[in-house]
Design the sequence.
């Protein structure tokens, strides 16, 4: 069963300076991907978020997994302001950004012009996809796609402040769950 949270045009704001895990795989009937890169994803997701964006204002030890996120803007964003503290230890894994719930098509028209991820602030310890520890790495892959979004806009990370220990690995970018259909 798929739970659809239709919060458009609302922003979800994460503003916690403590550990937070959002785990869609805790839902009955869900399962992580077990296919290797180059093979079609076989994850079963159970939570679909239709919203404007998830905005991270403050986060330390944030883990988001097992969600299908469709946003009008970037699916997840963290933009700097003068008083914004740096983020630490963020891990986005096992999610579908900008596709439908099974990853076979682009998101529902009107819900996702971007499945992108945008971070523009000082950060330490940021992982998009697998952490590469050899434990369940295939289950940590993301699909990052979106309508009318060039590949260069799907993941944006820049800052005038330090960015250290950033890893982007084991993801299907600008494609569907098969890795073969481009999301133009």
Sequence:
């Amino acid at each position: 069963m798929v739970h659809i949270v239709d919060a458009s045009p609302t922003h979800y704001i994460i503003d916690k300076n403590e550990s937070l895990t959002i785990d869609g795989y805790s839902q009955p009937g869900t399962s992580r991907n077990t296919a290797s890169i180059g093979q079609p994803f076989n994850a079963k997701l159970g939570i679909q978020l239709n919203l404007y964006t998830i905005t991270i204002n403050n986060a330390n030890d944030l883990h988001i997994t097992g969600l299908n996120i469709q946003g009008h803007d970037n699916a997840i964003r963290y933009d700097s302001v003068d008083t914004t503290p740096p983020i630490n230890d963020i891990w986005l894994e096992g999610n579908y950004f900008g596709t439908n719930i099974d990853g076979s098509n682009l998101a529902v028209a009107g819900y996702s012009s971007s499945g992108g991820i945008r971070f523009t602030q000082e950060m330490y310890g940021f992982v998009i996809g697998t952490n590469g520890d050899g434990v369940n790495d295939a289950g940590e892959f993301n699909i990052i796609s979106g309508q009318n979004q060039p590949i260069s806009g799907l993941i944006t990370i820049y800052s005038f402040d330090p960015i250290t220990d950033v890893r982007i690995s084991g993801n299907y970018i600008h494609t569907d769950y098969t890795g073969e259909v481009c999301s133009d």
